[in-house]
Design brief:
The strands form two sheets. The protein has a six-stranded mixed sheet, with helices on both faces. A four-stranded antiparallel sheet has the order 2-1-4-5, covered by helices on one side. The termini are far apart. With 256 residues, the protein is α/β, with parallel strands linked by helices. Helix content is 28%, strand content 27%. Strand 7, helix 6 and strand 8 form a beta-alpha-beta unit. The protein has one domain: P-loop containing nucleotide triphosphate hydrolases (Rossmann fold). The chain is globular, with a radius of gyration of 18 Å. Bound molecules: adenosine-5'-triphosphate (ATP) and magnesium ion. It comes from Dictyobacter vulcani. Keywords: ATP-binding, Nucleotide-binding, Transport. This is ABC transporter ATP-binding protein. InterPro entries: AAA+_ATPase (IPR003593), ABC_transporter-like_ATP-bd (IPR003439), ABC_transporter-like_CS (IPR017871), ABC_transpr_LolD-like (IPR015854), MacB-like_ATP-bd (IPR017911), P-loop_NTPase (IPR027417).
C-alpha cells in the first residue's frame, strides 16, 4: 500500500512548509539590471493547495524556479521544511528535488512511446523507486494512476488520451516517488475550463493525503478557490489570502 503520509510527519498541519524571505531576483544583461522579483516574503502552509496568481510576465515561473532550486535568488532565501535551499550544491539540490518535489508541466511532457503506466514507472526508475523494492513498483504506479482517476488508462499511449487524461497521468507520474510537495506551472492552461476545474479539484484532494501543492496560474477564478494564495504583479506581491505574506506593492484593481 502506498503510504502518502510518509513524509508528512516532519511538520504539523498548518505550520509553514515553505518560507520565502525577502527574495529578490535581478538579471544583469548588457550592463542593464532588470528586477524580476522584488522583496518577496510569504509562507506556504503545509498540506494546503497554495496558488501563485498573476498576469503573464508577473514573475510566476521565475518564482517557481527559486522554490525548486532550479534558479538561485539574488538576495533572500527559500527555506523548505527548515532547510535553506541555497546552502546546497547543484548535485545535492538535484537529489533533494528528486526526493521532495513532484513537478507537473502545462504540456504534460509524457513520453509518447510509453504507455501511461510505463511513464509512471520511468519516474520510479529515475527517482529511485520511492524507497520501494523494484517488484513493488508496478503496483505503486497503478495506485498512483488510481489516486488521480487514471487507473483505467494504464495501458494507453499518451496519443490515445485526451488532454485532461494526459494531465492526470502526469500528476500520477509526479506522485510516483511520494514527494511531500507537488509544484505545477499552469497545469490547466492548455485545457477547457471544465477539465481545468476537475484537474484543480484532483490536485486539491491530494492535500488530504498529506501533499502540499503549489499551483501557478494566471486564472484568478481558479486561484480564488485555493486555501491560500499570493497574487503577483511586476515581480511584487500585490494581494494575499489565507497565509502570511508581505504585500510589497499596493494595487487598486486586484480582484480576490
Ligand atoms: N532570463 C531572463 N532574462 C531577462 N528577462 C527574463 C528572463 N526570464 C524571465 N524574464 C522576464 O521576467 C519577467 C517574468 O517572467 P516569468 O516567466 O516569471 O513570468 P510569468 O508570470 O511566468 O509569465 P507567464 O504567465 O507568461 O508564464 C518577464 O517580463 C520576462 O520577460
Ligand atoms: Mg510562466
Amino acid at each position: 500500500m502506498l503510504n502518502l503520509d510518509k513524509d508528512a510527519d516532519y511538520q504539523l498541519p498548518g505550520s509553514p512548509f515553505l518560507q520565502v524571505e525577502h527574495l529578490t531576483r535581478v538579471i544583469t544583461a548588457r550592463a542593464q539590471k532588470t528586477t524580476l522579483l522584488n522583496d518577496i516574503t510569504f509562507t506556504v502552509p503545509t498540506q494546503s493547495l497554495f496558488t501563485i496568481n498573476g498576469p503573464s510576465g508577473s514573475g510566476k515561473s521565475t518564482l517557481l524556479n527559486m522554490l525548486t532550486g532550479i534558479d538561485r535568488p539574488t538576495e533572500g532565501s527559500v527555506i523548505f521544511a527548515g532547510q535553506e535551499l541555497k546552502a546546497q550544491s547543484e548535485n545535492a539540490l538535484a537529489r533533494w528535488r528528486g526526493r521532495n518535489v513532484g513537478i507537473i508541466f502545462q504540456f504534460f511532457q509524457l513520453i509518447p512511446t510509453l504507455t501511461a503506466i510505463e511513464n509512471v514507472l520511468l519516474a520510479l526508475e529515475l527517482g529511485g523507486g520511492g524507497n520501494l523494492p523494484r517488484q513493488a513498483w508496478r503496483e505503486r504506479a497503478q495506485i498512483c494512476l488510481s489516486i488521480v482517476d487514471a487507473g483505467s488508462f494504464a495501458q494507453r499511449l499518451p496519443a490515445e488520451l485526451s488532454g485532461g487524461q494526459q494531465q492526470r497521468v502526469a500528476i500520477a507520474r509526479a506522485l510516483a516517488n511520494d514527494p511531500p510537495v507537488l509544484i505545477t506551472d499552469e497545469p490547466t492552461g492548455n485545457l477547457d475550463s471544465r477539465t481545468a476545474h476537475a484537474i484543480f479539484t484532483t490536485l486539491a484532494n491530494l492535500t488530504t493525503q498529506g501533499k502540499t501543492v503549489i499551483y501557478v496560474t494566471h486564472d484568478p477564478q481558479l486561484a480564488s478557490l485555493a486555501q491560500a494564495r499570493i497574487d503577483l504583479l511586476d515581480g511584487q506581491i500585490v494581494n494575499t489570502h489565507g497565509t502570511k505574506a508581505t504585500i510589497t506593492s499596493r494595487q487598486e484593481e486586484v480582484h480576490s
